[in-house]
Amino acid sequence: MTGMTASRTADGLAANGSRTEPGALRSARTWERARSIARSCAGQPLPSVPRALADALGHALAEPLLALTDLPPFATAAMDGWAVSGPGPWRLAGAGVLAGQEPLPLGRDTAVPIATGAPVPAGATAVLRHEHGAADTARGRLDDRSPAPVPESQDIRPRGQECRSGEPLLPAGTTVTERVLGLAAAAGYDRLTVHRRPSVELFVLGDELLTRVAPRAGRVRDALGPLLPPWLHACGAELIGRRLIADDLAALREAVLRSPADVVVTTGSTAAGPVDFLHDTLRAVNARLLVDSVAVRPGHPMLLAELPATADGRARRLAGVPGNPLAAVAGLVTLAEPLLSRLGGRHGAEPLRLTAGSALPGHPRDTRLLPVFTAGQEVSPLPFDGPAMLRGLALADGLAVLPPGGAPVDLLELPRR
Q1: How sure is the predictor about 96, in pLDDT bands with cuts at 50, 70 and 90?
Q2: What's domain 29-47+196-343's architecture?
Q3: DSSP structure class, residue 27
Q4: What are phi and psi for residue 189, nearest 5 degrees?
Q5: Burial of 96 (0-12, 13-18, 19+ CB in 10 A)
Q6: Where is there biased composition of kind Basic and acidic residues (predicted)?
Q7: Which of 280, 212, 241, 263 is nearest to 22 (CA)?
Q8: Is the pLDDT of residue 277 over 50?
Q9: CB 38 within 8 A of CB 291
């Protein structure tokens, strides 16, 4: 409409819903606001899918995990010894009960050998530990040699001690770890309903990158190709491709247009250098730029955009992080991690709040992400924390989130296995 200028909303989008031109959105977001935009632009988590237990690892539960049985499903022995009925002495009866067997009921004042984990016979009042019993097999008699009389229910794990059938065990949004798989199997599950992991394609940009041998002749090794895929996987992503792309506008445009991934992650080309073509690429593909620079060090020239949907209508996003290694990690933590967590249906991890063991230097104006190591509840800074460095990060327990001027607020744990 002529004679009118569309105003911009707080998210940098036109008030009338039109697309924002890449390059027109230059005011840096605060670190907290950038992460909030990354979460909210994901919309709803990706659809839920059924997965066999072996295939559910790393996904997020799409519905609460409810117990399908009591745990334990029957009373079991907590120790090796004898299942006994009454105060003793007892008459020995039977050859013993092993795990996986279904025992016969136990008569009054009788005992039967029992193994740890075996079902306790009906009528048993306790389990007498092996070291506390004196069995006379010739006389068929068992005496108690424990320091005190055997209390009722000693060393019997009662049915339902851990949970009852139908009881909620874990909420939706819980990441399926090895421990979750064990609990799900114990609770009776063969399959889990989980959110699909967001697919990610990684584009590492730059003519100067080598994939093997030592740096030479003005070229450097690609550190991000090995570093970022496992980091993205720990954030819940399903990496479907990783490519080195030369500093070429046409090549980058074609790669972005053709990518089938839910999220494209690019490294480098986020600033305004002579071969930084990412903004031009986003303009060429008619992307919607949501974040263009974040007030965080290192890594402030990072961006987040909505790409045109796939042919089947599936939404796509692009997270552009700087090319310097530590700055790229800062970009991943700031934009990619909250986006991927939301798409994958994961609960956002709460940051740890710890105490500074020594001075933690901040940036005068911006949030700073500083590699630190922890000792107890205290954190201390590490050297080698420049944007192009990885040595400090390799030694770090986490990244301290420092407000302008310094002093720690939060500690984001590195996603390690």
Answers
A1: very high
A2: 3-Layer(aba) Sandwich (3.40)
A3: S
A4: -90, 140
A5: middle
A6: 132-146, 154-165
A7: 280
A8: yes
A9: yes
**What CA–CA distance (Å, rounded) separates 224 from 384?**
17
Residue with the larger pLDDT of the pair 26 and 387: 387
The tokens of 22 are what?
A: 């890449």
Rounded to an integer, the average pLDDT of 310-324 is: 93
C-alpha dihedral, 293 to 297 to 298 to 300, nearest 10°: 10
For position 417, what pLDDT does the model report? 39
According to DSSP, residue 344 is labeled T
pLDDT at 147 over 70: yes
* CA torsion angle 404 409 414 417 (round to 10): 180
Q: How far is CA 412 from the centre of its chain?
A: 12
State yes or no: pLDDT of 23 exceeds 50: no
Across 308-366, where does the E strand assignment appear?
316-321, 355-356
Give the separation between CA 6 and CA 380, rounded to whole angstroms: 48
What is the CATH code of the structural domain delimited by 76-157? 2.170.190.11
The confidence score (pLDDT) of residue 193 equals 98
The mean per-residue pLDDT over the stretch 65-89 comes to: 96
Distance CA 198, CA 317 (A): 11
Domain ranges within the chain, ordered by starting residue: 29-47+196-343, 51-66+170-194, 76-157, 355-413
At residue 72, what is the residue type? P
Mapping DSSP onto H, E and C, the string for 231-250 reads HHHHCCCEEEEEEEECCCHH
Q: Is a pLDDT exceeding 90 seen at residue 202?
A: yes
Rounded mean pLDDT, 258-286: 93
> What gap in Å lies between CA 97 and CA 113, rounded to an integer?
6
Distance (Å, whole) CA 234 – CA 413 = 12
For residue 201, give every residue at least 6 positions away whose Cβ sits within 8 Å of its Cβ, in sequence order, or none. Answer: 239, 240, 241, 242, 243, 259, 260, 261, 263, 264, 265
What is d(CA 365, CA 367) in angstroms, rounded to the nearest whole number?
A: 7
Give the whole-angstrom CA distance, residue 165 versus residue 149: 34
Mean pLDDT confidence for 87-112: 93
Q: What is the mean pLDDT of residues 101-118?
A: 95
Determine the CATH number of domain 355-413: 2.40.340
Token pair belonging to 57: 């690892």
Tokens of residue 203, six digits: 């584009």
